[in-house]
Design a protein that fits this description.
Layout: E1 10-15, H1 20-30, H2 32-43, H3 48-60, H4 74-87, E2 96-99, H5 103-115, E3 123-126, H6 144-150, H7 152-161, H8 174-191, E4 196-201, H9 203-214, H10 218-227, E5 235-241, E6 249-257
Parallel strand pairs: 1-4, 2-3, 2-4
Antiparallel strand pairs: 1-5, 5-6
Helix pairs in contact: 2-3, 3-6, 4-5, 6-7, 8-9, 9-10
């Protein structure tokens, strides 16, 4: 007799490919102006020097588009295509695909689909619950240190609350992202039992799924975020095991695996 299971047969999670913001951040962190600002920030974020440098950094490194509309780079497109080719031999054809409504996630899936033609047959659902963490007003500055320098009370509040509980003004805390991801997991139980599921999303969503599955503490969550952050187009795979637990269990098979080749 077949054992019933409340979980998907396969749950595969893919982070979006390299985005324009990922590149901007790397350029910024290598720039002498930003390095000078970092030193001033760490010395005294309330100083006139830190504030002056923060304004210069904002003017020099403005992305000019919303987080929602941030696109993939050419490298991100390549990563997505190669991931699509790798997925076709790694997991079964998905019955349903959930994608974050953010542009870079939708674009990532489009390129995965191009290289994995059979995935085109899957039902596509854009789901707000697996969107990026909302960083609120800090997005106007493209850097949390700049934001905290120009609004110094936010640094004090961040230090008081810690990275897990701190909520960006008009944005979300990590805890709140984890809560809405928990609702997504509950939907998987209700609607996707026994199915092969592909999810294209963001790094914090993937960490939230893992944290909820493994019941990680806030401290363990932040440790993973600092030391095992999902890479661009990193692939994480869970397999449903019907013989584990009362109604089956999702078992982690792969975490943050890279299916695309590093260039250079």
């Amino acid at each position: 007799m077949e054992v019933s299971m409340k979980w998907p047969k396969i749950l595969a999670l893919v982070r979006h490919g390299q985005s324009a913001y990922n590149v901007l951040r790397a350029q910024k962190e290598a720039d002498p102006l930003f390095q000078q600002f970092r030193k001033a920030f760490e010395k005294d974020h309330r100083s006139a020097e830190a504030r002056d440098l923060a304004v210069q950094v904002t003017e020099k490194f403005a992305l000019g588009i919303s987080d929602y509309n941030t696109p993939l780079t050419a490298e991100g497109v390549r990563q997505a295509k190669e991931t699509g080719m790798g997925l076709s031999g790694l997991i079964p054809i998905p019955d349903i695909v959930f994608v974050s409504p953010y542009h870079r996630a939708k674009e990532t899936f489009q390129h995965i689909k191009e290289e994995w033609g059979s995935a085109m047959q899957a039902k596509l659902v854009l789901d707000d619950r697996i969107r990026e963490q909302e960083h609120g007003l800090s997005l106007l500055y493209n850097d949390w240190r700049v934001f905290q320098t120009l609004h110094p009370e936010q640094k004090d509040f961040y230090k008081m609350m810690g990275p897990y509980w701190y909520q960006f003004p008009q944005g979300e805390s990590v805890s709140e992202v984890r809560d809405r991801v928990r609702l997504f997991i509950e939907m998987l139980i209700r609607e996707c039992a026994g199915k092969n599921v592909l999810v294209v999303t963001h790094h914090l969503t993937i960490l939230s799924i893992r944290a909820n599955m493994e019941r990680l503490s806030s401290e363990e969550f932040i440790h993973f975020d600092e030391h095992e952050k999902p890479i661009n187009c990193g692939v994480t795979v869970y397999e449903g095991k019907p013989d584990l637990g009362t109604n089956g269990k999702l078992q982690l098979l792969r975490y943050n695996e890279c299916l695309w080749k590093e260039l250079g």
